[in-house]
Specification:
This protein has about 425 residues and is α/β, with parallel strands linked by helices. The chain contains 16 helices and 18 strands.
């Protein structure tokens, strides 16, 4: 009982989905008695009649509510869940929230039979958003991104990754990264900013992708390093090839930045295996991932981030190789890929539903994909993503009876309250 001072904020009266692999080894801080998982648990790490102590924004202890009552402990403030579900705050580990304009017209063209690749080759796609983003002021980009972010926050998201990649020149890439970081300062959310300058060939370098990659490595990357935690690249026939992608990653590693990759989305390029062998924290999309690639991801501990919104919006047919990912114990994350072209999605819960109904994940896998595995995809799983002692007190509470309901319903929002570092969020 040494670590319980009575000054903590405590959460009690909740059904707790810890999403922790070692939830069965939790012990009560008062009596050292085991805190047992519920009998109906399906690897959610479910705990009942357990209280959580929070101080200085972190989880300081877990204790059986009965032991707290027997000991007669009182606290300065108690949050009573009245039977609600409590989970870790959700994590959107792949988004493009900062951009100018929109591409509703291109979406309409796709519905009329034009492919994503055809639109891109005709100057549409990413390059049309580049033009709008370059033209937008920093303030305009912040205001439009803030509107999108609020949708995610309302659904229990407490951490979001935001990529650049619609500037494709130094000034605009820096502008996007500054906006991403400002969102994290002005809203109750942690933002992980990722440089995606290698998203498409800049108009100024049309027909000369090698020269553009050299510019990314020599100029954009080093001058952006202080504004981001990771570097991404799009390896695909409409973007960059394997050697070009490797050059970007080598430079990123020299600068001490994490690497991740858009890979195997429209065809098999080998980029996922390349990135994994270079220490990538995640490989994303992966519809054309091979069985051998899954072995490599599993061996290297690289997270497979699946993006069902892009799959759905592009009307793709080939699904990620879920069985091979499972067989090789590859951590699977789920994200919105929120962007103006291929995934104009503003609901992480909907992505969880799609991951189950379209890709075949279990509800538990989907929730893990939005919590602990999403944290791994950002290299943050030591501090967020599960409810464990010493981790940050990022929580979402829900008006549901079971965790599966979070990805069962389509539409609606069962989120009752969100806590960032122990403080209830308002935005």
């Amino acid at each position: 009982m040494k670590s319980i001072s009575g000054k903590e904020l405590i959460f009690r009266g909740f059904k707790i989905a810890t999403m922790a692999s070692n939830a069965g080894k939790f012990k009560c801080e008062i009596s050292n008695a085991p805190i047992h998982q519920t009998t109906d648990d399906s690897n959610y790490g479910m705990l009942q009649e357990t209280a959580i102590g929070v101080a200085d924004g972190k989880i300081t202890w877990l204790a059986l509510e009965q032991e707290i009552d027997i000991a007669g402990l009182t606290f300065e403030r108690t949050i009573n869940g009245e039977g609600r579900l409590l989970t870790p705050g959700l994590i959107d580990c792949h988004s493009h929230l900062v951009f100018g304009g929109n591409r509703a017209t291109e979406w309409e063209r796709r519905l009329n039979g034009c492919s994503y690749e055809e639109i891109a080759k005709q100057g549409g796609g990413i390059l049309s958003t580049v033009s709008a983003t370059r033209a937008a002021s920093e303030g305009e980009l912040f205001q439009t991104a803030a509107k999108r972010l609020k949708y995610l926050l309302s659904e229990g998201v407490t951490t979001v990754e935001i990529k650049s990649g619609y500037g494709l020149n130094l000034d605009s890439e820096l502008k996007m990264l500054r906006v991403a970081n400002r969102l994290g300062l002005e809203f109750p959310v942690s933002v992980e900013a990722t440089l995606l300058a290698a998203h498409a060939v800049a108009p100024e370098f049309k027909g000369n992708p090698d020269a553009f990659i050299q510019h990314v490595c020599d100029t954009i990357l080093p001058q952006s390093a202080e504004l981001c935690t990771a570097v991404d690249a799009f390896c695909e026939s409409i973007a960059f090839d394997l050697p070009q992608t490797q050059r970007v990653f080598e430079r990123a590693k020299q600068l001490g930045l994490n690497i991740k990759v858009h890979a195997e989305q429209l065809s098999h390029t080998g980029a996922a295996a390349l990135a994994a062998n270079m220490g990538a924290i995640s490989a994303d999309h992966l519809e054309y991932l091979s069985a051998d690639d899954c072995v490599t991801l599993g061996q290297q501990g690289t997270v497979a981030t699946l993006l069902p919104g892009a799959y759905y919006c592009l009307n793709e047919k080939q699904k990620p190789p879920l069985a091979a990912l499972r067989d090789n114990h590859v951590p699977i994350a789920i994200a919105t890929d929120s962007n103006p072209g291929s995934s104009p999605v503003l609901s992480l819960l909907l992505m969880g539903n799609m991951a189950c109904n379209i890709f075949g994940l279990t509800p538990c896998e989907a929730l893990a994909g939005m919590t602990i595995n999403a944290a791994k995809a950002l290299n943050l799983d030591q501090s967020i993503g599960s409810i464990e002692k010493n981790k940050q007190a990022d929580f979402a509470t829900w008006d549901v009876d079971s965790p599966a309901e979070l990805v069962y319903c389509i539409g609606g929002n069962p989120c009752a309250a969100v806590y960032k570092a122990g403080k209830r969020t308002e935005f």
